[in-house]
Amino acid sequence: MRLSQMLFVTLRDDPADAEIPSHKLLLRAGYIRRIGSGIYAYLPLMWRVLQKVSQIVREEMNATGAQECLLPQLQPADLWKESGRWDTYTKAEGIMFSLIDRREQQLGLGPTHEEVITTIAREMIRSYRQLPLHLYQIQTKFRDEIRPRFGLMRGREFIMKDGYSFHVDETSLKETYQDMYQAYTNMLRRSGLAFRAVEADSGAIGGSGSTEFMVLAEAGEDEVLYTEDGKYAANVEKAVSLPIDAEASQFTTYQKHDTPGTDSIEKLCQLLKCSPTQVVKNVLYQTVYDNGMTVLVLVSIRGDQEVNEVKLQNELTKIAADYGAKTIIALDVPNVETQQTWTAKSLPLGYIAPDIADEYIKGDKQIHSQFVRLVDQTTVDLKNFVTGANETGYHVVGANWGEQFKLPIQIVDIRKARLGDRAVHNPEQTLFSARGIEVGHIFQLGTKYSQAMGATYTNEQGEEKPLLMGCYGVGVSRLAQSAVEQSYDQDGIIWPVAIAPYHAIVTIPNINDAQQVQIAQQLYTELNQAGVETLLDDRDERAGVKFKDADLIGIPYRIVTGRAIANGKVEVVERATRKSQEIVIAEVTTTLQQWIAAAIAAKN
Ligand code: ATP
Ligand code: MG
Fold first, then answer.
1. Considering the entire predicted model, what is its pTM?
2. Which candidate among 210, 347, 409, 548 keeps its CA 20 to 30 Å from the CA of 98?
3. 145 lines ligand 1 (CB under 6 A)
4. How many CB atoms are closer than 10 A to CB 243?
5. How confident is the model at residue 365 (pLDDT cuts 50, 70, 90)?
6. Do residue 401 and residue 437 come from a single domain?
7. Is 436 in the pocket of ligand 1 (CB under 6 A)?
């Protein structure tokens, strides 16, 4: 492609609304254009990158025996009602775009495709002989994200590879899961990314089977905790660890203390001169179930620890049936205003004890009249602890479970693991923290969808069984931008060779020099014919402008038909290292072919 004929517009300055380097660079270098919030046009250079990433993904998927297909983006609401996800996905903070057609039928724009694929499986898979089966697609997804941001990182329209597998049993599901683990590892390595596979939260479905693939970068929205021995890595949402030991309590008798102005653990510990590890702190949450029922939750956790809201949400989902519901649609710490909607009298906030009376709740049809009391395991072994006295300005000390406070039946792990904690597998190892961009997620679904939607098969014994399922997603557009987030310098993007839009750019410093032009055109033709994807910068611009643009768009090799042509040579510059060398014109094509092959092979 000749730059003179391309829609090639680069920006000198950082666009105002872009916060992270990759977003700024892709906009400045003319790869993408913002059309609306979370909506981007992939311009020709970007489209080439996306095609390359897609091709790597496709090759790795096909190598496992998965088959490519293309499912509809427009999905009938009925399917989502069958799986029970319509309300969660369209109401409150739901992320599905929904619409009503001219026949008054409700439809959604696909944020994911479990319902569609399960319908197909239900209709087409009859026998164990057809299994296992794995279908995937590479397609645009729609999600009405609450906070679209960072360009392609969190778009409302983005490209995903999603695959769904069907199995007779756990063993078969785990085999495919392992294959996917390997395929994802290959995809990311081949795309030139530094990444980590981490244990991930699999929601209330539980199970061991969920791994996220995190591209390591400061701009990542996720936190990863890992040990240096390489044996443990998990998303902070899921991570477990051993907290530091609690200090022994200096209180030996149960007493109520006047503790004015101590509505925080810090102030309380200062006043009582005690360690936060001796305190049972009681945190109030409010959750709304999918049937509209509001339930108040009191979490008791050690004073130096924090609640992991993902773990908390999973616990509350497990007990949804107790409230006649299936899932949770909201979970937060109630503010003063929302508290007023359910309190019968004002709460001793900051001084609450684990046994705060249910009478504080003004129960009605929509508000459950009792607290759900969850005790984190960090508090269970505390002796002579400090906690609230259920009276503003007072705490109790020297308290014990089984004496002053009943230990509720629900003892759970809802604490947030954090940097510096000891690892469970080996307490000598401590947890380190890194930021990550989730580019892939593989998941053992089990029978969640097949059971809800009645997708069964007949086994060898002639019995009808629900299909076991796995699902596997890669954010193709997010992955492409992550590559930039990991690889750039002050002058622009440095694409990994395997996913660069072009391998080389031939720059003519002076288009009025007939010899420069002639050699450049000759090289341009020769390189492209030899499979080296090459751009020709034949624009009527100053050489400096052209060099700047070439650096900005990040093409791995720049070939300059400058002064060296007098000696039958051209200058070849490697973008990543800026190493420059003069190469005999006749050898340029084979040299570049070798370099490119070597760069790609190094990652294969
Ligand atoms: P996140 O936690 O970042 O919202 P998710 O858990 O909702 O992601 P999945 O449903 O597992 O994502 O989707 C599979 C992959 O699709 C993700 O690993 C990610 O790479 C990509 N993806 C998800 N949401 C977006 C988005 N809004 N924009 C771009 N890519 C996305
Ligand atoms: Mg995910």
1. 0.92
2. 210
3. yes
4. 18
5. confident
6. no
7. no
